[in-house]
């Protein structure tokens, strides 16, 4: 999937969640840009058929009450760039990388925590301990 398509999918998802029409989003963008986007321009953006300037990405984030990194989130598809594809893992890493002292917003903290929990739960030693715990519970029987 091209990065423009990933952004377009997020625009469509966020617009639908906020129950905005194509026209309403176009008008909201007009408050931040020189002129509003037409219904067709919003539709093209949602279909990944246009590139975005920094000002447009900023206006989209403001109009959709979100952050710019959220606009770039993608499913587990490879992201196509002009010189080649980026793996889903590398793409997610790009969105989460930040300076060490830069605070995380709540969603990023949750994503990182869930990833860390998944890493821990996938360890073979932990799986063996969980099985031992289940067997111990069965042997001990119901608590009185």
From TrEMBL:
Coiled coil: none annotated. GO terms for molecular function: DNA binding. It comes from the Bacteria. InterPro entries: Cro/C1-type_HTH, Lambda_DNA-bd_dom_sf. Residues 11-71 form the HTH cro/C1-type domain. Pfam families: HTH_31 (PF13560). This is HTH cro/C1-type domain-containing protein. It comes from Nonomuraea aridisoli. The lineage of its organism: Bacteria, Bacillati, Actinomycetota, Actinomycetes, Streptosporangiales.
């Amino acid at each position: 999937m091209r990065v423009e398509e990933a952004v377009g999918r997020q625009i469509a998802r966020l617009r639908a969640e906020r129950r905005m029409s194509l026209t309403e989003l176009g008008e909201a963008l007009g408050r931040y840009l020189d002129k509003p986007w037409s219904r067709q321009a919003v539709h093209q953006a949602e279909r990944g058929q246009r590139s975005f300037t920094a000002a447009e990405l900023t206006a989209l984030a403001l109009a959709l009450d979100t952050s710019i990194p959220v606009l770039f989130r993608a499913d587990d598809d490879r992201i196509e760039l002009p010189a080649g594809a980026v793996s889903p893992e590398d793409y997610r890493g790009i969105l989460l990388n930040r300076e060490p002292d830069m605070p995380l917003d709540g969603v990023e903290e949750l994503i990182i925590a869930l990833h860390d929990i998944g890493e821990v739960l996938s360890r073979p030693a932990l799986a063996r301990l969980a099985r031992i715990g289940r067997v111990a519970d069965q042997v001990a029987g119901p608590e009185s």
